[in-house]
Structures
1.
Amino acid sequence: MPILGNADVPIALWMERAALQHAETAVSSPDDPPEFARWLETLLQPGIGQDERQEVLGAMYAYFDRDKTLSAREAEDFANRL
């Protein structure tokens, strides 16, 4: 497990805030997977729990990097559960 430095947590929090700010004005693209809107909607919910956030992020990673994570079918099934 990597060792976190003093700046890692504040930088990660800053990056998350910046990403959420950009997400508020995100628009769909024809290239987006159909699950994208559902993922984004879930991640933007106020008070989302860390477990639910990790599930969504896991589904996103699985979708975009299927060879290294879940099979395509598993990723699709997982995305449909959200």
2.
Amino acid sequence: MMNHVFTWLYPASVVILLEILFAYPRSIFWIAPALILGIIFSVFSITNRKIDKMFFKHALSPIVYTVSGLLFVSIQEGFVLKHVAVFVIAIFLLVYLENMYVLWNDKEKHQRYSMLNISSYFNIFAVFMLTSALYWLVFFLAFSSYTMLIILSISIFFLTFQTLVIAEFPLKKSLLFSSVITFICGEIFIAEFSLPTSVYLNGAFLSMCYYFLVGITKNRLLNTLKPKIILRYSLVFLICSLFMVITAKLA
């Protein structure tokens, strides 16, 4: 089917356009709109070419992810790192769009909760990229921290809301928990300005907090929240946080 083409065509286009951006930085003025319009059209094509609630149900995360990825690669300075970042971003997009295609066009292959699980990790990576980029803009270009907080809050709300909607949780509960998670992440974002760490460690820590909050929320709404699940999320969060603290001290 023709709409399957977009599962790999758009990620390939992301690689090409970002490589052009590295060579010609001023091209960002047409590359940024092209990337955003490209992901919107790709989701539109994969979801049977209809602008309805199902389109918006799947479009929010990829749009936020695309903008986050663009900001993230824009702050990279190392030659190898920025090229690696481009390919990682494209691979995540490929996996997400392929799973979306299977959900819409190949029901026999689709596994329950697969889209939910992939969306969760997709969004965690988006939070990391976005948070790192926003801290960089504040620390190195003196952007307003409150403006960055607003951008982060809107993005996290959309990412969380889409995750919960994909899981088919009630709308009111999805809005409530999305708001709570957004508020907590916003508080953490502001608090991290006082920590003597790098923008990437700040981004990683907030993304781990987001991982913990969304994970606990999903299991709570699925009525599967048990002590061992809380312990698992807590251990992952603590181990990653400890690793980040040690890394910060060695840096």
